[in-house]
Every structure is written in C-alpha cells, then in structure tokens.
Amino acid sequence: MGSNSRGSSYQDLFCFLLTKPTGRNCHYDGNKLHLSSVSGNMAHDLRFALRMILSHRLFSAAVVATLALGIGLNTMVFTLINAVLFKPVPVPGGAQLVALLNRDLKQKDNNARRVSYPDFREYRTQNRSLAALEAASDEEGILSETGIPPQAYRMEHASAGIFEMLHMQPVLGRGFLPADDKPGAAPVAVIGYGIWKDRYGSSPSVLGRQVRINEKPATIVGVMPKGFKFPTNIDMWIPLVPTAELEKRTNRPLALFGMLKPDMGISQANADMNGIARRLAAQYPEDKDIGITVDTFHEHYNGGGIRLIFLLMMAAVGFVLLIACANVANMMLSRALLRQREMSIRAALGASRWRVVRQLLIESVLLSTLGGVLGLALAWLGVHWFDLSTQDVGKPYWIEFTMNYTVFGYFAALCIFSGLLFGTAPALRFSRVDVNEVLKDGARSAGKHRGGKLSGLLVIFQFALTVVLLTGAGVFVHSLFQSLGANQAVPAEQIATARIDFPDEHYKDADARQRFYDQLLPRLKALPGVTHVALTSNLPGLGAADRDIEIEHSTINDAAHRPSVSFVVQTPGYFDAINLPILLGRDFNETDGTANHKAAVLTRECAEHFWPGQSAIGKRFRLYDEKNKPGEWITVVGISANIVQELNEKSPNPLMFIPLRQEGWNGMALLIRSSDNPIAAVRAAVQNLDQDLPLRDVYTLPQAIQHQEWFLHLFSKLFSGFALIALLMAAVGIYAVLAQATNSRTQEIGVRMALGANTHNIVALVMRRGLWQIVAGLALGLAAAWPAARLMASLPIGVSPSDPVVFMIVASLLAIVGLLACWIPARRAAALDPVKAIRYE
C-alpha cells in the first residue's frame, strides 16, 4: 500500500510538471498514466502548439517577424517572375501563343532575324503545327488631322487575321476584314483604347473618322479593349498590305506570331517549321542558310538578360530565406534548451521519439504559417510598389504583376518547407533525451552543450550566405554607378532632348530631311537662353549604330572576320554641346559629308585601336552597309576624347562620329543646351515648319538615361534591400547565439570573476567563440562569392567579376557588424555581479 502510494505521488508529480504550462488533463488509473497531450491526435498536437506559441508571445513574435521577411520577399519575387516569365499572355489561349523569327545558320551568334513576306505566306500555308499564323511589322506612326495637333504613336502593320487569332474583339466598331490587307483595299486603322480616350474623349463618333497616318489617309474602323497593345505596347494597327518592295525575299521586316494546335508542343512546331525552311532554302537562293525558331511568347520577349536578372533576384531572396531559417533554427535551439524537462517527462511517460519530433515540427510549421500570412501582406505591398515603379517606363502590356493560384501554391509550399527546414534540426537534436541527466542536473546544464556546435554552424552558414549576397549586390550596384557616372564632363542637367521622326510620304530622301534641319537649327539657336544646338542619332551614353569596317590597305574579304565599329551620326556643334574636346585635328564643318568630302572624327581609343602608334589624321576607311556592300572612302579629320556611348555593353566596339550630311538618317534627336526649359519654344518652331510633325521622347538628358536604364536602377535598389535585410538577420543571429551561450555560462563566469578574472579576461572569453564563427563565415562566404560575382558578369552592364573594392568593403562591413554583435553580450557578461552570478540557476 505504501509502495503504491509513493508510485501514485510520483505520477501526480509528473502530471503536475507536464500539465502546468499547458493546462492539459492528466490522470492515473492505477495501471497506466493517461496524458492527452502525448497520446492525442494531430488536432490535439495543433492545439497544444498554439498554446505554446501564445504562452511565449515575445519569442513567437520574433520568429514570426523573421519568417515574414523571408517568406514575404520570396513570395514577392516569385510573383514578379511568374508575371514576366510564366503567366500566359492575357488573351484567350495565351499559353499557346508563340513567336517565330528566322535565324542565320552561318552565324554563330544564332540571333533571331525577321522574316520576308513571301516566306510568311509559305510558312502559313505549309505548316501543320499551328492553328493560325499572322505577321506584323512595327514602326512609328504619326497620327494627324485637321484641328488636333499631330502625335506620334507606336503602330503595327498586321495581317488581317491578327485579332481573330487572338480572339480579341473591339469594344467599338470592327477589327480587320480578310479583304483589308489585299492590294487596292481602302486604308483603315484600328486604334487602341488609350488613343480613343485621350485624343477623342471616348466618343463613339470616332468610327468612320478620316485621319492621316504618316501623311497617308485612313479611316478609323475600330477601338480595341483597354489594356490590349499586342504585341509590344502598340497604340494603333493598320493592315499589312503587300507591296513590290515587301514581296522581295531579301526584304525581311516581319515578326511572325502563331497559335499552337492543342496537341502540339514547341519542339514539334520547331521541327515542322524548320522542315519548311529547308525546302524553301533548296527552292530559293535568297533563303539559303536560313532557318527558323519557334519560341514561347515569354521566351522571345523576356529571355536573355532580363530572365537572368530575375533569376538572380530569386536566388538573392532564396538566400534571405535560408538566413531567416538559420536564424529561427538557432532561436528554436535556445528555446528547446528550456523545454528539456518537458521532453524528458514525455519520454518517461512512454512517448516515442517520433511523437516528440511530430509535436515540435507541428509547432514549427504553425509558426511558419503565421509568419507566412504576415509575409503575404508584405509581398502584396512589395508587388504593388514594383508595379507602380514600372508604370511609366514602357512595361510590356501583357505583364500583370498580380497574384494567382500559382503564386498561392508556391506560398503554401514555402510555408511548409520553411517550417520543416528550421524545425527539423532542433526537433531531432532534442527529441533524444536522457531522463536521468535532466532530472538530476536540470534542463539548462544538461542541454547547454548539445546545441552549441549546431548553433555555431548555423551562424557560420548565415554569415557565409550574407557575404555572398552582399558581394553580389555590391558588384551590381558598384558597376551600375560606374556605368552611369562614366561621362562626368557632359553637362547633362543643362541638356534638353526630343526626337523627330519623318513620315516617308513627305520626306522621301535624305535631301528633304536635310532641308528641314537647315531651316530648323538656326531658329533653335536663336531661342532665348539656348547656347548650343545639335542633332544626333544617339544621345550620349544611349547606344550607337554598328557597321563592319575596312581600313585602307588592310582588306579582309571574309565578312565573318571583318572588324566592327560603333558610330554616332551628328551635326557640327555636337562636341561643344556635350563638352567633348577635340584632341587632334578639327570638328566637322558644313561641307563635311558632301560629295568628295566624306569625313569622320574618331575617339582616341578608336584611333589607337585601328592605327596603334600612328597619327590617325588623314587615314581612310570605309563602312559596309546592311547588304554587305562597301561605301565610299572616309577620311579621319579629328580625334576626340573618349566617351562611354553604350552604358550596357561590357565590351563595346571602337567609337567614331559621322556627319549627318554623310549618312542622312531619318530619326534624329535634338540636343539643346540651355539655361531654361526650351521645349515649348522648340515644339512651336517645329510646328511652324510642319504642322503634322510631332516631337516625341521629350526629356532632359538625365531623364532620358533614367528612362532607358530604369530596370537597372530598380533592381539595384531591390538587391541592396535584400542584402541589408540579410546583414541585419546575420547580426541578430550571432548576437542571439552569443547572448544565449553567455547566459548559460553565468555561473562559470561568476566563479572566474571570484577567482580573480578581470573585465578584459571575461570579454575575451565570451568573444572568442563569436570570433571564430565570424572568421569561418567570412572565409567560406568569400570563397562562394567569387563564382557568384562571375555569374553577375553576364548581366547587361559592365560588371567586373573581380572587383577588389567591393570584396574588401563587404568583408570589412561584416567583420565590424560581427564584432559589435559579439562585444555587446561580452560587455554584459563582464558587468555581472560575481555573487549573484554564482547563485544563478
């Protein structure tokens, strides 16, 4: 009887210890102890996990906040990637939409090229893989009419079946009829919703309105729905009517779009279309060595550099999530130390190891889910901010930054994965307990060494990932700033720009365009506040044209081995307007470019490239045109200082300048250096000469660069933000681990201080553990950062994979942050009262 009483009292003690923090029921029937929290089902485990979370609110809040950042950033970036790379184009059957372009089988670059109209007809009639195939060619369209100022819009020449293929019906009027793209058909136009709203006030009377498009008459017959701008932010469409020029097989201006048949895939379509291409190559000499590529719509427009940037961004936030999970795992380890007595009693009462692991994992997944819910709200805010940031920079119309079922599926999987990721190690580590050790020594002393090594490894892992992330972001941002700051001498803030594109109907040749410029430039120079006026084909830093070049007395017959050169077309006064000095020779004059006066000014780098160790003044060369025919011999008349003309090119061609009279380009940019904003007066001067000629792309030079390089600015902010969050998490992680370790050694520190250890000894003792973790994390991270930086070098900017400045700054910054995170708990330990520390439990 006495023995049974003692046994019963022990069982009551176990019940009391286990159920006190949870409020669960426990009773002993004389043979078996019944404990609902141990033998309950999954629902009981879930309720118990929720009680544990609510009973430790501050700890749970820290875990939830950390996970919210990691899961939220990953969900945000996946939403962006899904919109750019995977979500179907928002038209019926958008997942089946494909783009087709030629490829030159002789060229190693395998770049896509456009298709001729006769080949389009052959592909359309002979293919067996496409339900529909249509052609389109874009150009600038100037819409003008009596009583309304002219305006330039993006226009598409499209075959008549384009709207039917996309199953898109106009909101007003009709689309194209089969007869609209036949020779001799009455010219018609379908306008976009934006033109209808902004230009015509959404008036139904727009149907049948007579307008001029590039000085050719047309009748508006339809208005497309809001948001429809197929294929690339097009504002209006006119039928693609075959002409004698278009019927030439050597003339390849068309992009093809098709809808796959339901039972066809991309590989089958490629095999089908390339079989047709081989037959055409055998039948027509003009198609020799011409193949064709069928791509998904997203792959065609969002491949290459854009895809790489988004995937790198996904990798960056993946690192942030791993750092967050490592941080939470360390927090769970420290929490598990305090729950050793609970785990021991569970084991003593018969709970299996799996039963304990399951309970701990349910708590982890529940915490992850709560963090995910908060992270989902953060992700929505981030996506909304990104969408607003890309509204006015030419974002493709088909990209909709919204969350769909794919994103929510990814989010749910991420919550479960994260919970298992940070919860598994602590659960396995502390589910195997020694009951005698715990009951004899207490949870703190029994468990203080069990998680120490694992915590240290997690800190090293955090620091290594942070080094990689900070280095990648640093290389990206540093390279961007170097690129954007390349032309410091150019007075960009004083320069206003606008483009003029001439319709072919009234400006059929270079002489007609030159006569217009000869009248316009003197008027602009006479405007108040204007100091310099020039015309240029490409603004400083915003690209250049490329041609093959032949140096006199150095003929290369093989076109594949000819050197290439970049060039900018300009008028006299351009160098003065942008403060680019002439180092040797002279600037252009009004006779340069005329017959027998073909001239060029080379940058110093270009001159040294083609005539090393010689004076390039007076040397001659000639350029090859698009048909691989050489032009007239050109004489070098001047050498200018170097300028970075192509900000996004890692290895640009040598650069030279050509006078406008020599090249006679259509689209040119006005470059006006002024103390005031002269655009209103410039627009009036242009309208006085031609009332149907609009200005477009009206910016200051910094705005023009910002508009073209918007995605680099935006992504640099994102990468920097991700890296700073990772840095904060890593600092908090090492601080938490050291604070917990120091707390567990309070008695030891008290004894050391009582035996004579001074403040310096205690600080060194505590910091020693953190220092080796920092050193190990930095070493591992720097080793991994090198290949990561090399991957960044494939981005469309001049990224240097071996940027020692960035590596040194990142290593120094992390070392300082890590030392500070170690020093704070060390100073707290050194300030302990030895008497209280010795009595600490």
Radius of gyration, CA atoms, in whole angstroms? 36 Å
Beta fraction: 15-25%
Describe the sheet with the most strands: 6 strands, mixed, barrel
Low-confidence stretches: 1-25, 32-40, 442-451
Structural class: alpha+beta
Name the helicity range.
Answer: 40-55%
In spatial order, strands of the major sheet run 5-6-11-8-10-9
- Nearest-integer average pLDDT: 80
Beginning-to-end CA distance, first to last residue: 37 Å
| Overall morphology | globular
Count of runs of 4 or more consecutive helical residues: 27
Structure write-up:
With 841 residues, the chain is α+β, with helices and mostly antiparallel strands. The chain is 51% helix and 17% strand. The chain is built from 27 helices and 24 strands. The strands form four sheets. A six-stranded mixed beta barrel has the order 5-6-11-8-10-9. Strands 16-17-22-19-21-20 form a six-stranded mixed beta barrel. Strand 5 (130-145) and strand 6 (148-158) form a beta hairpin. Helix 10 packs parallel to helix 13 (405-430) and helix 25 (759-792) packs antiparallel against helix 26 (804-830). The longest helix is centred in the middle third of the chain and has 37 residues, at 353-389. 40% of the residues are buried. Residues 1-25, 32-40 and 442-451 have low confidence and may be disordered.
